[in-house]
Amino acid sequence: MPITILHTSDSHLDIPAIKFGSRRYERKNDFLKSFDTIVSTALEKKPDLFLHSGDLFDGLNPRNPVRARVMEAFRKLHEKQIPIYIISGNHDVPRARRHGVAPLLEYARTGFVNFFPEWETIQSSTINLHDLEVEISGISFNPTLGPSEDPLHQLSIPGKGDVNILLAHYNVEGLRGTFPYEPDILLKSIPKNLTYLAAGHNHEYQKQQVGNTTICTPGSTEHVTFSEESQKKGFVWLEIDTHAVQKLQFFPIETRPMQTQDVTIPADVNINQMLIKEIDRLRNPQLILRFRLQGVMTIKSAEQYRRTEVVRHGFAKCFSTEIVDELEYISPDPDFLTPETELKPPITEYRDYVNARVKQEKDLEKKALLQKALDRGLALLEDSGGW
Q: What confidence tens digit (pLDDT) does each residue in 361-370 have?
């Protein structure tokens, strides 16, 4: 009878979500809902092992309600006699002693989970399942490693079980890396007797076979950035016997949609009208929408453009709307303008002018008033689209 495993990673619970404004707690809850779906699946299917390969939390100090919800989930899994094995990822591992301990440690202290907190050594635990000796090892993310360093270099993985599993939160050679310029586990460092490398950190579901070793990253369980908008999110279910992984299946879960809309802006067009019309066409209260503006911005179009008006309309029609500006700013008569007289956006002109006044002013009280005027003026210009 094969060993069954539910493997998940990169839950990023209690993500800041500040840019979503009043809807940030609803966005935070999206990540909790994905985690709840995975836990509910485990309680229903009762795998022999529950593995989490790091970044359970998005930071070192998740809020107490989120901590409590995870504690309750782990308690339920523990009561169903489903062994849980976890490691810290780059988001929830302390980078120095002053940062305290990993938030995962409190779950280990309850006895609900098996936590491998070490950075520089591989820790192991052995369990008997279906007459097979299963060795589960893990290493938490090491924030001191450089991009050219192999996290498994010169480290020993015991590998004495009939089935040998390693949890690691790193890019793996051969898989498309979400995070360039970071440490990679090199294939030559993976022991030949390793049955399954349960990887995390990479937010896209991927797998590969190297000799007898199956390597898999299940990906994040929600879309964290727009670079992931086309990716399906979920977890993996696998079956292993004494020889190798016999079955590995990706289970997608429902997540909030994200979409980038590229918009080319013609000269002198009313940008607000153009984008609002596009929002009305795409309207979806669940959608996280991003406009990427390309083309040109003339004086005429700049005078009519109010970014906040577009964002406000997007907030009414979609879950959220943001704008990335890749426009080329052009002046009306470039042939008659020297570099010294070339027009700048109003917000730049204002900042440069007031900063020069602040620098020249000797009176400290007047200097402070000018600084307040600068901050207030920049806020008003930004709000009215004067950038």
A: 888 778 777 8
Rounded to whole angstroms, the Cα distance separating 200 from 151 reads 13
Of 331, 326, 324, the closest CA to residue 345 belongs to 331
> Residue 207: which H helix or E strand, with range?
strand 206-210
Are 176 and 206 contacting, i.e. CB atoms less than 8 angstroms apart? yes
pLDDT digits (tens, 9 = 90+) for 229-264: 999 999 999 999 988 999 999 999 999 999 999 999
Which residue is listed with tokens 């305290």? 100
Which residue stretches of the chain have pLDDT < 70?
96-101, 178-180, 331-344, 379-387
In sequence order, the 6+-apart residues with CB closer than 8 A to the CB of 212 are 192, 193, 194, 195, 243, 244
CATH topology of domain 3-252: Purple Acid Phosphatase; chain A, domain 2 (3.60.21)
% pLDDT > 70, the chain: 92
Could you give the CA distance from residue 198 to residue 52 in angstroms, rounded to a whole number? Answer: 8
CB distance 9 to 217 below 8 Å: yes
Question: What pairing do the DSSP bridges indicate for beta strands 184-185 and 171-172?
Answer: parallel
Where are the chain's structural domains? 3-252, 258-383
Class of residue 336 by CB neighbours under 10 A (exposed 0-12, middle 13-18, buried 19+): exposed
